[in-house]
Design a protein that fits this description.
With about 200 residues, the chain is α/β, with parallel strands linked by helices. The chain is built from nine helices and four strands, in the order αβααβαβαβαααα. The chain folds into two domains: about 100 residues, Alpha-Beta Barrel (TIM Barrel), CATH 3.20.20; about 90 residues, no CATH class. Strand 3, helix 5 and strand 4 form a beta-alpha-beta unit. It starts with 11 loop residues before the first helix and ends with a helix.
Amino acid sequence: MVLPMSYWKFSEREILQHYGAIADAISLPIMVYNNPATSGIDLLPKFIMQMAKAIPKVTMVKESTGDIQRMHRLQELSDGTLRFYNGSNPLALVSFAAGASGWCTAAHHLIPDLTLALYNAMLVNDLANAQQIFDQQLPLLQFIVSHHLPATIKAGLKLLGLDVGVPRLPLLALEKTAVQNLEAILNQVRIQPLT
């Protein structure tokens, strides 16, 4: 998974060259990671398709803008040949309906049973069950998005009995009240029966 990140804003030509150089240096397929909130660079669907055509190792996209129309556009432009994955937690359900091949989430570290259940429900097109499973985990997904992901996951793992330490500086651990809120959400999400 490659995220174009730089202090200076890259041109499309520079981004294409960057991904091409990576493709030439490795034997693995490449997932283009479009996350303008963290990289400062927004890769539009048309340009992503241009990269996929120019660089055969570009076979997947993690679309994290939170714009479901981007996913529809990727599906349309690629005729389903370029797999895309949702990177926006609150869009998990609608992204599957838009044709996403999967969902790249950190929530699976805390609620693996629910994330797998959602994926499996969508595989068999059981939309009613998928909606119920999604609604069950939505409070946690929203909490993760509204707090720093690394701090939230590390705090959640500690609450579940696996202390993996604190985030690397300059990120800070969740504040005490946020940890208490996370614990309440995890308790609520995890005690509901999985259907």
